[in-house]
Amino acid sequence: MSTRPTAVKNDLDIRPFSGAPLGAEVCGIDLSMPLDEMTKVTIHEKFLEHQLLVFRDQALTKREQVEFSKQFGELEQHTLRNRGQDDEPLVHIVSNLGPDGKPTGKVNSDMWHTDKSFRPLPSMATILHAQVLPPNGGDTCFANMYAAYEALSEEDKTALNGVKVVHSWELSRENIGRVMTPEEKRDAPTNAWPLARVHPETGRKALFMGMHASHIEGMPLEKGRAKIIELEEHATQEKFCHRHTWQKGDVLMWDNRCLLHRADPNFDASVYPRVLHRTCLRGTTPA
């Protein structure tokens, strides 16, 4: 048993974002220490309630981020190209830096998506910790898929019953101009999930799509893709979205089962580095 002190929730201060369709700020906790049971329960409850939690003023090592993440579920391995360095392979380095350590001008993950939706057990949560930030910009944007689904007409909701979408890592790489190797394809085969999935913990329905969504089963390819694009345009309207402006020390934890997200390349990525550490928690089979 660990002899390290545990973080307690005596000073835990959780503030929902005013006027936003999701998200809350969490202050008064040090995530580098193990959480006591009451704190874990509180954080999990608020995670389900607000879908996105922003923990301020953290300075986690890779190992500490892994240990924090493991308190809420089983860590998910990353795709072959995204696996972390040998010291912590379960920590993906999200970066605009090239092999020479200099900014490349390219910001990845700038299209709407939910992490690892192509996996047999798509991610439950993502934890992202800022390491190096540009002086301005480099925001992460979120869209509330509960709200997007609930805003559909009853006729549209009924039409989605039983509809499944094929999620494909291969297609999403094609979207950014990269052809996968045979090894990568074997590592990440396609899977089909309900377009309107039921959240396994809250029971609420949410749209489940994004850039990994290839086509709709049983529908002509182009027609199915057009429907996915139409729904994504609906779901990412400003009224369903929240923009996170990063601060030094931020750790974000969000629910992939009911949110889409994307990086905003709203900074000079050829001059300024943007480096974050990412861990993901394995989810359950979507239903």
Protein model, in words:
- This protein is 22% helix and 25% strand.
- The chain has 287 residues and is of the alpha+beta class.
- The protein has a single domain, classed as 4-Layer Sandwich (Double-stranded beta-helix), CATH 3.60.130.10.
- The longest helix is centred in the last third of the chain and has 15 residues.
- It is globular and about 50 Å long.
- The two termini are 37 Å apart.
Helix and strand topology:
Layout: E1 13-16, E2 24-27, H1 37-50, E3 52-55, H2 62-70, E4 92-95, E5 123-132, E6 140-144, H3 145-150, H4 154-160, E7 164-167, H5 169-174, H6 182-187, E8 191-194, E9 196-198, E10 205-207, E11 213-216, H7 221-235, E12 241-244, E13 251-255, E14 259-263, E15 275-282
Parallel strand pairs: 2-3
Antiparallel strand pairs: 1-2, 3-13, 4-15, 5-13, 5-15, 6-12, 6-14, 7-8, 7-11, 9-10
Distance separating the two termini: 37 Å
Strand order across the largest sheet: 1-2-3-13-5-15-4
The largest pleated sheet is described as:
7 strands, mixed
Instruction: Report the uncertain regions.
Output: none
Overall form: globular
CATH superfamily: Clavaminate synthase-like
Write down the Rg: 19 Å
Average pLDDT figure: 90
Reading the helices and strands in chain order gives EEHEHEEEHHEHHEEEEHEEEE
- Note the total helix count: 7
Q: Report the CATH C-level class.
A: Alpha Beta
The total of beta strands comes to 15
CATH architecture, by name, is: 4-Layer Sandwich
CATH topology: Double-stranded beta-helix
Total domain modules: 1
Report the structural category: alpha+beta
- Helix coverage percent of residues? 10-25%
Query: Which percent range describes the beta-strand content?
Result: 15-25%
